[in-house]
Design goal:
The structure holds two protein chains of two kinds. In chain A, strands 1-5-4-3-2 form a five-stranded antiparallel sheet. In chain A, α7 crosses α11, α10 crosses α11 and α12 crosses α15. In chain A, β4 and β5 form a beta hairpin. Chain A is an alpha+beta fold. Chain B contains six helices and five strands; from the N terminus they run αβαβαβαββαα. The longest helix of chain B is centred in the last third of the chain and has 20 residues. In chain B, 46% of the residues are buried. Classes of the chains: A alpha+beta, B alpha+beta. Chains A and B meet through α1, α2, α3, β1 and β3 of A and α1, β1, β2, α3 and β3 of B.
């Protein structure tokens, strides 16, 4: 007993030492490439070619952003635009990732001052509306379809960034925005507006207008009372009738029934499934295509389904709450679709249980 | 596997896959093409004691309906005993069973997405379910690591 007790303590000591040694933020030991691989590559690609995330290896991008911009972007993310905030990383870790990003191209990092530019806000607003809004949105909300990947057709290599995003405004200095307007970004739809005929004064005015987005009032996207993870409705009908009603209601709401199965089907021997726990799967392929175009990760909660169970307390219909789950994606565009889906689930259930 | 060896393995997996915990979602990229990544995924789930109850072929449904997409599947998995226990004691969690991993092609590579079980714990706050969430998280990290590191 003494020997096995000693073995357990020794193994705990060795494992803990290994874990502590590998995770302590010692500058000499921080590997930016590993941090990038483990945290960024899923969206941005191992070599920064992009996918769900923007291509970081574009020379046109790298030559027009500063290390400070990259640092702040990693630190603050882009609220509502998929890119998470990596608040858990130390400064040293983020600097290591930035250093790794710079290995993707030979482009030199830009350097900008933090000085605020001066300009004419009214003129900037008019010029923005004429030259920028068609891509970046009337209020700087950015292009749509933030979740495009190489898995499906895409209209643009990069979706126009949200210039009113608090993460963007915190990361980008006025001078950086100005330089982007002057030079454009090769490899993206962003052109040089100096070449397009705007003057340097015009460009300063636009920058001043974009900076004014910081004053935009931001509304909370989430309804206060909708934080439950699931929807649960008790049916007044018996189990069999409830299942049939759900199937009819699904079809009546313009969905296609794709499968009806038992909850534990495929996990237990055929014939021994719990027949009082049924999943009804359904789909509207246009909605599915649109949802995946907004964010390909949303397949995590597909296909659409309602689960009907009977227990001692009665017959219940269950669904996930898509609106609650949309918070996981940090994708404002998805919030609207998920809100719509929640309403659809409720409508289907309500019709089935009338 | 002896108890202290299991302890060591858990510590090491926690260390190397710590970075997956940045979000409510786990998302990883595999250098394997889709068919190979799918094989590794399914084999790894089975190795961890799960049954693949179903593979939803999302891309097949889309292409049949004239939408363009590359391979996109959802792998449903679970342990019969766990599903039975949870459905009986904690039926409010039923909408999230079976567990699932979305796997889709990204050019010549493959992406995998799954919910971090910590999110379930945050949503449900059910002490009786804590052991399930912890176990699922450890297993999920290990499975995703198998896919990422496979050559």
């Amino acid at each position: 007993m003494y020997k096995s007790d000693f073995k357990i303590k020794l193994s705990i000591f060795v494992s803990a030492s290994l874990m502590i040694g590998l995770t302590l933020p010692l500058n000499a030991g921080i590997n930016g490439g590993s941090l990038y691989r483990d945290n960024c590559a899923a969206c941005h690609g191992y070599a920064g070619k992009g996918g769900v995330g923007v291509p970081l290896s574009l020379e046109g991008f790298q030559s027009t952003v500063s290390d400070h911009y990259l640092f702040e972007t990693i630190r603050n993310g882009r609220p509502g635009r998929v890119m998470p905030a990596f608040k858990q990383f130390s400064d040293a870790q983020i600097n290591a990732i930035v250093k790794h990003l710079r290995t993707f191209t030979k482009a030199k990092a830009a350097k900008f001052s933090n000085k605020a530019l001066r300009g004419n806000l009214k003129n900037g607003k008019a010029l923005y509306a004429k030259n920028c809004a068609s891509c970046h949105g009337d209020k700087g909300e950015g292009g749509t379809g933030t979740g495009v990947t190489f898995s499906r057709p895409r209209n643009l290599p990069i979706i126009a960034p949200s210039l009113s995003n608090p993460g963007f405004l915190k990361s980008a200095s006025d001078q950086m925005i100005e330089t982007t307007l002057i030079k454009g970004r090769k490899g993206t739809p962003m052109v040089s507006f100096l070449k397009r005929g705007l003057t340097r004064k015009d460009i300063k005015d636009i920058v001043v207008y974009v900076r004014s987005f910081e004053k935009q009032k931001r509304k909370n996207e989430f309804p206060k009372d909708d934080k439950k993870a699931f929807i649960k409705i008790k049916s007044a009908e018996n189990f069999k009738t409830t299942v049939e009603n759900i199937k009819r209601s699904v079809i009546g709401h313009n969905f296609k029934l794709i499968r009806v199965q038992y909850l534990n089907q495929g996990m237990v021997e055929k014939g021994s499934e719990n027949k009082k726990q049924v999943i009804v799967y359904f789909c509207n392929f246009r909605m599915l295509n649109n949802a995946l175009a907004i964010d390909p990760r949303v397949g995590q909660f597909l296909p659409c389904r309602l689960t009907i169970i009977e227990n001692k307390a009665g017959v219940f219909i269950y669904a996930i709450n898509p609106y609650r789950l949309s918070a996981l994606f940090n994708n404002k565009e998805l919030n609207k679709s998920c809100g719509g889906m929640r309403k659809t689930y409720m409508d289907i259930i309500e019709e089935a249980t009338l | 596997m002896s108890h202290y060896l299991k302890l060591c393995t858990t510590f090491i997996i926690l260390t190397f896959t710590n970075s997956l915990l940045a979000d409510g979602l786990f998302m990883v990229r595999s250098n394997l093409a889709f068919p190979e990544a799918m094989t590794v995924l399914q084999n790894s789930l089975i190795k961890h004691g799960y049954k693949i109850s179903r593979v939803q072929r999302v891309d097949v449904g889309l292409t049949k309906n004239k939408y363009k997409t590359d391979k996109y599947r959802v792998v449903f998995y679970g342990k019969a005993r766990e599903v039975g226990e949870i459905a009986n004691k904690y039926p409010d969690f039923i909408p999230y069973l079976p567990l699932k991993i979305a796997i889709f092609a990204e050019g010549e590579q493959t992406l995998l997405v799954a919910t971090n079980p910590d999110e379930y714990e945050r949503m449900y706050k059910e002490p009786g379910m804590s052991s399930y969430f912890k176990r699922w998280k450890t297993d999920l990290r290990s499975v995703l690591k198998d896919v990422v590191t496979a050559k």
